[in-house]
């Protein structure tokens, strides 16, 4: 039986999808999130959030506030869903930070933004905003800690959901001949430094990463 390692603990429906395919699954959290006790200014009307963790930090800060004039710009369907569940209006959702940056530059050139980020964020979005003279302030609202764990075995496939997850895994393990399944191109760019056996999800969601792995191994059996 082929066995796959997930570098993020999966939800029950995600696990079920995987185990119904006949593949073995090992899972752990390669990363740990620490929310920071920082002040988030609320005088802005335009907010950029690129992850569910930044949304969680934001929601804690805006409890019992009037957010009717807030306009939110985000990356990822799950981020958008969490924002909308909490009554926030999403003006634009993009699948990648580069795509969101281009939209802001084109459609909101004269607006000022508050960008809520994590300490491991990529430079893509701030670099594009700075180069195009978009006014923004960045507040780091959470830290990502690497949680290294050694596995005394090889896996047929490894599921990666961020460049940090790859760095965490490699602190105590090697890639070997595993096929790497990556949630998007940014994660794949990091993976390419260590392997040629890479499959990129065609939608940047956890579910799609699982589907790619299932399809790959059921096709190659």
Could you write a compact summary of the structure shown?
One of its GO terms (biological process) is uroporphyrinogen III biosynthetic process. With 221 residues, the protein is α/β, with parallel strands linked by helices.
Can you tell me about this structure?
The chain is α/β, with parallel strands linked by helices and 221 residues long. The protein folds into 2 domains: 3-30 and 147-219, Rossmann fold, CATH 3.40.50; 33-144, Rossmann fold (3-Layer(aba) Sandwich). The chain contains 8 helices and 11 strands. It has a 6-stranded mixed β-sheet. The protein has a 5-stranded parallel β-sheet with strand order 2-1-9-10-11, sandwiched between helices. Helix 2 packs parallel to helix 3 and helix 4 (97-107) runs parallel beside helix 5 (124-131). The N and C termini lie close together (10 Å). The relative contact order is 0.18. The model has no long low-confidence stretch (mean pLDDT 95). One of its GO terms (cellular component) is cytosol. One of its GO terms (biological process) is uroporphyrinogen III biosynthetic process. It comes from Flagellimonas olearia. This is Uroporphyrinogen-III synthase.
Key phrases:
221 residues, alpha/beta, Rossmann fold, 2 domains, 6-stranded mixed sheet, 5-stranded parallel sheet, 11 strands, 34% helix, elongated
């Amino acid at each position: 039986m082929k066995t796959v390692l997930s570098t993020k603990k999966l939800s029950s429906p995600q696990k079920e999808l995987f185990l119904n395919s006949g593949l073995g699954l090992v899972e752990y959290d390669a990363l740990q999130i620490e929310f920071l006790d920082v002040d988030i200014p609320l005088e802005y009307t335009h907010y950029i959030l690129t992850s569910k963790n930044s949304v969680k930090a934001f929601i804690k800060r805006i409890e019992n506030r009037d957010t009717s004039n807030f306009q939110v710009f985000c990356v990822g369907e799950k981020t958008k869903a969490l924002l909308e569940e909490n009554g926030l209006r999403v003006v634009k959702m993009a699948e990648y930070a580069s795509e969101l940056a281009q939209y802001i530059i084109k459609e909101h050139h004269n607006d000022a933004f508050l960008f809520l980020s994590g300490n491991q964020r990529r430079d893509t979005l701030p670099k594009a905003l700075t180069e195009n003279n978009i006014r923004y302030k960045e507040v780091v609202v959470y830290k990502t800690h690497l949680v290294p764990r050694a596995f005394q075995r090889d896996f047929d496939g490894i599921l990666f959901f961020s460049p940090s997850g790859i760095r965490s895994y490699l602190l105590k393990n090697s890639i070997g001949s595993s096929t790497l399944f990556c949630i998007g191109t940014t994660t794949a760019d990091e993976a390419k430094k260590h392997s040629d056996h890479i499959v990129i999800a065609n939608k940047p969601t956890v579910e799609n990463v699982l589907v790619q792995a299932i399809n790959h191994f059921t096709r190659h059996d």
